[in-house]
Specification:
194 residues; alpha+beta; Nuclear Transport Factor 2, Chain: A; 2 domains; four-stranded antiparallel beta sheet; 8 strands; globular
Length: 194
């Protein structure tokens, strides 16, 4: 029985012709084909009859290229977010309140004095925030801090009273100085006797 010899070159060419649009041309007596994707004007593959040479051209459109660059930049920068420590009580209060209103709880946590109760209260506030409607979240983040009053208790403790334009409710936060950095003692907001 005579075995049928497979023509690899022919099979590959047929496969590419089925998948992609090709344009054949003769180059120095040898057949060459450029294969195009249906949506592209740039060749994806170039096939030369001479020596079964395949040159693969990876052509990325500008959209894909810039998307890839943007993704890489965001992926690299995401873990390197740093915040500047507050050097004054009002600065700590402003940073904490603004982050809190915008739903940036990682940043709010940075400006907060960490203890068991403060961490618990921040988690509860975060859970409550995520139950708000999109409209309420937007209104809260756009709200301005108004009627700020500062009461200095001691060189290391300051109470800041304020309203925001979202609900106009009078609130207070306590800033404490630890190692020359001002932090917000969040539990004071709920229990002013501390």
């Amino acid at each position: 029985m005579k075995k049928k010899k497979l023509n690899t070159k022919k099979n590959i060419t047929i496969l590419f012709k089925k998948l992609l649009t090709n344009h054949s041309y003769k180059l120095g007596g040898f057949k060459s084909c450029l294969f195009y994707s249906p949506k592209s004007t740039l060749p994806l593959f170039e096939y030369h009859e001479l020596g079964f040479v395949f040159s693969i051209y990876i052509k990325l459109s500008m959209k894909i290229f810039f998307s890839l660059i943007a993704f890489l930049l965001l992926a690299c920068n995401n873990s390197s977010i740093t915040y500047l420590p507050a050097t004054r009580p009002l600065e700590a209060a402003r940073e904490f309140i603004e982050a809190f209103k915008a739903g940036k709880f990682e940043k709010a946590s940075f400006y907060m004095l960490h203890d068991k109760e403060n961490d618990k209260l921040l988690k509860e506030a975060k859970d409550k925030y995520y139950q708000f409607t999109k409209k309420d979240k937007r209104l809260l983040s756009e709200a301005s801090i108004q009627n700020v009053t500062i009461e200095t208790i001691s060189p290391t403790e300051t109470i800041i009273y304020y309203n925001n334009s979202f609900d106009k409710e009078r609130r207070k936060v306590k800033a404490v100085n630890q190692n020359n950095t001002w932090l917000i003692d969040f539990k004071y907001t709920f229990n002013p006797n501390l």
